[in-house]
Amino acid sequence: MIRQLHVNVHQEDDSYWAEVQELPGCFASGDTTAELIESVEEAVALYLAPPEGEAPPVAVALAGFELSLESEPPLQAA
Description:
This protein is of the alpha+beta class. It has one helix spanning 33-48, and strands spanning 7-12, 15-20, 27-30. The longest helix has 16 residues, at 33-48. The chain is elongated, with a radius of gyration of 15 Å.
């Protein structure tokens, strides 16, 4: 079953953190975007996993993503 989730990515200082809109309390962080993606996959798998011993672990893989950026003040072309 493919499930679409929306992840809000934030940059603070020299690292990133993300929150999954459809999974309250599901957060991830990383020093690079690659680490963040890996951390999001792990966080979603842990969030969706059934209680220990009830079923096999949930496998999560990023199938694709769409990126949009927002900035305050708005970004300007160089």
